Amino acid sequence: MASITLQEVEKRFGETAALRPTDLEIRDHEFLVLVGPSGSGKTTLLRLIAGLETLTGGEIYFGDQRVTDVDVGDRDIAMVFQNYGLYPHMSVFGNMAFGLRRRRMDRAAITDKVQEAARLLRIEHLLERKPRQLSGGQRQRVALGRAIVRDPAVFLLDEPLSNLDAHLRVQMRAEILKVHRAVTATAVYVTHDQVEAMTMGDRIAVMSDGVIQQVGTPDDLYDHPVNRFVAGFIGTPSMGFVECAREPGEPDLLTGTGVRLRLPAERVAALPAKAERVSVGVRPERLTPTGRGDAESASCTIEGVVEVVEPLGSEQHVLVAVGEQTVTAKGPREEHFEIGEKVVFALDPGHLHIFDAESGEALT
Amino acid sequence: MTTVTDTDTAAPARTYRTRRRLPIARAVVIVVVALFAVWTLWPLYWMLSTSLKTSREATSLTPTVWPHSLDGSHYTGLFTGSLPFTNYFVNSIFTSLVSALVAVLISTLAGYSFSRGGYRLNGALSLAVLATQMLPLVVLIAPLYLLLLKAHLLNTYLGLVIGYTSFGIPFGAWMMKGFFDGVPREIEEAARVDGYSRFGILFRVVIPLSVPGLVTTGVFVFMNTWNNLLYPLTLINSDQKQTLPPGLLQSFSGTFKTDWGGMMAASIVTSLPLVIAFFLVQRSMVRGLTAGALAGT
Amino acid sequence: MTAPALAVLALVIGYPIVRAIILSFYHYPLLSPFRNFIGAGNYQRLANDPVFWQSLVNTGIFTGASVVLGLLVGLVLALALERLQGPWRFVRGVLLTPWAMPVIVVAFLFQFMFDEQGGITDALLQRTGIVHHAIPWLTSPNWAMVAVTLANVWQQAPFFLLIFTAALGGVPNEVIEAARIDRARGWSMVARIKLPYLRSAALVGALLMIIQNFNNFPLIWAMTEGGPGYSTSTLVIYVYRLAFTSFNVGYSSAIGVVWLVLLLFIAGWFIRVLRGQNS
Fold first, then answer.
1. Mean pLDDT of the residues in chain C
2. Which of A144, A248, B232, C222 is 20 to 30 A from A59 in CA distance terms?
3. How many CA atoms lie less than 13 Å away from B53 in the CB half-sphere?
4. Do the Cβ atoms of A87 and B192 come within 8 Å?
């Protein structure tokens, strides 16, 4: 029905740029997640797509229709707000019917539509209630229901789960995806929570400082982050970084405090010759502790001191100080670590992420 | 043996002070409240009891704290006697109600546009409102008098209502702005997404959510006009069209100079609409008066 | 939608102000056609007008005393009544009544109570032996100012009670609880924890009441008409007399303009203080 195309879309508030010129193509029926820390411009981008903000530059197309100057109410969108934005003086039914009434749909059809959406969200028994009589999760369902009764072409969600407790949040993630499949609208979902992004998005756009850093599938972003920001933002616990320098005369050897990484030939070939200082990232699950003997033979090792051990039941996280930096290792809880103990990790060089120390760009 | 010494030699237990009652502090509070209660209530009692005394007792040179006998003739006298009290009362009700309605209508539109008009307007509005609040009525009255004189509206209800309304609008707009600021923007944005125009949003979403604000602003204007002595005193010169404050003032400083009982009965009847209206909106009144002031600065 | 709103405000605020400023440069008798431009003449006259200066001083005394006393009474009451619960809250409601009463009624009531012949105030003071001779509340220049100020405080203290009660309700519970854990109680709780939260309420309330008392026409006019002599004549009373008993609109407008400038300074200072504490 509607893909969304952004061309050079830009938003400034006076001197400050909330969103730098951005191109983005959102496919029809896709569930795209905009993720980033607060102030990264993700909400601004969503509000520009909605038409709640006017852009200071660029064009927006829904399908091949130019909607840059089309008012919010005429864009055929529906939106779920962070604090739900329910009308406090209307019943649940009234909230869901409000947008349909504006479209002069006849009464029976409105009732049908609302009933249908209520059934999908299992809130039929709440239709007569006022929003203030509902729990957070119920309000969330009503907000979703209000959005889907309209059969929108584009479905926009602005941090809809941020006011729910952890348990409900997991439950509502599934609920939203189910709703999305039922309505087949193109969905754009804003969140600051990368777990939400990874679990929900067909594709994810990672934003920072008003710029989209990378767009891709969850696996893409996890395995091939284009820069240090994306690498550190996606994945939990976060990727650990250690600063290294290339040994003069030994182009395949990266060293730093407690770090010794000998790279295979194909990775060395991918590194630019002039890159002398680099930042090496390691995913926590790739750090395997070894005995001293094994370490001698391993081509890549990281050595440090255990600072904190976080047991999680199924596994444990071990925070290790390596020189000035801290990296996290994730492993089975059977392995025992003492605080202050010296540990050595062996690494598979194929799982290293190497970034330019200055620019943070990936070097591979 | 050892078990006994065990407790004896243990480090002295941390002593917990039980919460001290503060009888003196409590007594001070009670005395203070009692004193202020007497200070506040005594005049009210005096007004009520005098209005219920006979004329002779009410004007006695040795006043009695407790009325000897209760007598309602001062009240019936208000509506049947030679004082055109009913007339003043109806005029006051009529002009105050109309002014409150008109002022609320205009203040609502103005307040809403200021509430959503961005920060630059805020400063201008609070300054303008402060200016009118400060600008003495008595200075406004001369230009207003000259204006109404030219428009041949002196001594008319319309002229009086124009005066009342023009003075009520700025502060009313300010109060309404404060109430509208309390309506979350998200709700309005939801209505925009639902396809409503600005006026549709205002009338179907924002106003229904601001009814307490509307009522409060209305009561505020009503109270101010009901209290207004200066405007009717200068703009109205026929007893037929006069409102309560100047009407009563002229009556009780002239013909009815020492009719204290009648004066107190008239005072009570004049107070009732205002006191009732005030207690209906007491809670939101504070918000209206101070929220605007705090947000606007 | 903003434009018409601005236009309405400009009309109702701007017109009278501009007109008043223009009038202040004219000799403008209300009822005669002989009007002429006299430049700063009205302002020169004002500088040498003892009644103007006395009215200015009276305005300061009346406003200052009313606001300070009203604020203190309201503050003490609000703190004392803070814990009222359930049906007892009606006590606070009753204590608020004076603020809701028409000013003209307050004037009548106190005029009656302060009457020299048979007024209850003097009667009670004499019966209890506090004074031996009746106090001439409304007929002596010194006592008249006391009488109108007392009447005014009686009416306005409840306003402060109202806003302080609201502000006390706004003190976050966590702060009170944190202070209790730190063993703040009684006086130190009030002075160190609660009072700072009441600052902006006090400032806003004081500003609103200063403005209102500067403009308080009905109370003084109904009680004393500014007398005896000019002893209770505030600026409003003087301006009203000039405009509507001497019909000298030009001169009265000049006083109004001076007065407006004065109040703008007071308000500007308040806004600065408020802003300073908000940031």
1. 81
2. A144
3. 23
4. no
- Residues in chain B closer than 8 A to C94 (CB atoms): 40-41
Local confidence band at B7 (pLDDT 50, 70, 90 cut-offs): very low
In a domain, C209, yes or no: yes
Contact A102 B193 (CB under 8 A): no
**C-alpha span between A329 and C276 (Å, rounded):** 49
What pLDDT score was predicted for residue B3?
46
Whether a cis peptide bond, with omega within 30° of 0, leads into B170 is: no
Say whether B270 and C1 touch across the interface (CB within 8 A).
no
Q: Is C138 on the interface with B (CB under 8 A)?
A: no
Among C2, C55, C94, C277, the strongest candidate for a mutation testing the B interface, having the largest count of B CBs within 10 A, is C2
The structural domains of chain B, with segments of one domain joined by +, span: 6-73, 83-295
Q: CB distance C154–B43 less than 8 Å?
A: yes
Among B184, B193, B200, whose Cβ lies nearest the Cβ of A77? Answer: B193
Q: List CB contacts of B58: < 8 A, sequence separation 6 or more.
A: B50, B74, B260, B261, B264
B208 near A CB under 8 A? yes
A79, B190: Cβ pair inside 8 Å?
Answer: yes
CATH of the domain at C211: 1.10.3720.10
Q: How far apart (Å, rounded) are the C-alpha atoms in residues A233 and A36?
A: 8
Q: How far is B294 from chain A (nearest CA, A)?
A: 25
Of A85, A98, A102, which is closest to B189 when you measure between CB atoms?
A85
User: Residue B142: its pLDDT value, please?
Assistant: 78
Instruction: With CB atoms and an 8 Å threshold, state whether B186 touches A82.
Output: yes
> Tens digits of per-residue pLDDT, C87-142?
777 777 788 889 889 998 899 889 888 887 777 777 777 778 777 777 778 888 88
Distance from CA of A156 to the nearest CA of B (A): 10
Burial class (CB in 10 A: 0-12, 13-18, 19+), A122: exposed
Q: Give which of A106, A108, A111 is closest to A124, Cα–Cα.
A: A111
pLDDT tier for residue B295 given thresholds of 50, 70 and 90: very low
CA distance linking residue B26 with residue B17, whole number of Å: 20
The Cα C218–Cα C225 span in angstroms is 9
Half-sphere exposure of C131 (CA within 13 A, CB side): 10
Would you say residue C7 lies in a domain?
A: no
Lowest mean per-residue pLDDT among A196-205, A225-234, C55-64, C232-241: C232-241
What is the amino acid identity at position A19?
L
What is the domain count for chain C?
Answer: 1
> 3-class DSSP state for residue C98?
helix
| Residue B186 distance to chain A (closest CA, Å) | 5
CATH classification of B83-295, choosing from 3.40.50.150, 1.10.3720.10, 1.10.10.10, 3.90.660.10? 1.10.3720.10
C54 within domain boundaries? yes
Q: Is residue C22 part of a domain?
A: no
pLDDT for B34:
85
User: Is the pair A, C in contact (3+ CB pairs within 8 Å)?
Assistant: no
Domain span at C239:
37-278
C234 touches chain B (CB under 8 A): no
The 10s digit of each residue's pLDDT in C149-172 is: 999 999 999 889 888 888 887 777
Chain A interface, mutation test: which of B116, B188, B194, B207, most A Cβ atoms within 10 Å?
Answer: B194
ipTM score here? 0.81
pLDDT attached to residue A83:
87
**Partner-chain residue, chosen from A52, A84, A150, that has the shortest CB–CB distance to B192:** A52
Chains in contact with B, counting 3 or more C-beta pairs less than 8 Å apart as contact: A, C
Res B10 pLDDT > 60? no
Q: pLDDT tens digits, residue range B205-225?
A: 999 888 888 988 898 889 889
Can you tell me the distance from the alpha carbon of C130 to that of C79, in angstroms, rounded to the nearest whole number? 30
